Amino acid sequence: MNKKMMDMLVCPIDKQFPLELHETKSKQEVIIEGVLFCSKCTRFYPIIEEIPIMLPDELRDKKQDIDFLEKNKQNLPQKIIKDANPWHL
Description:
By secondary structure, this protein is an alpha+beta fold. The protein has 2 helices and 4 strands.
C-alpha cells in the first residue's frame, strides 16, 4: 500500500478519518505489512502483502486476522493486540 493512500482511506464501519497507521514492514513509500486502526470503533484492518484488508466484520477471515495478530504481537500497540475489534488476542 502506498502511504499516499492514507489521505483517502476511511473506516468502512463508521467512516472515521483519518485512520492510524502502524507499520511493521515497509520499504520507502510502500507499506508491505502493518495495521490501519480506527480510534472511533476500535477496529483494526491488517495490511498484508501491501494490500489493506478493509472488510466489514461478517466478511473478515477470523483465522487470518488472529494469525496476523499472533505474528505481529511484538510490533503492534496493546490497544490493537488486546482490545481491538472485531477480535483480539
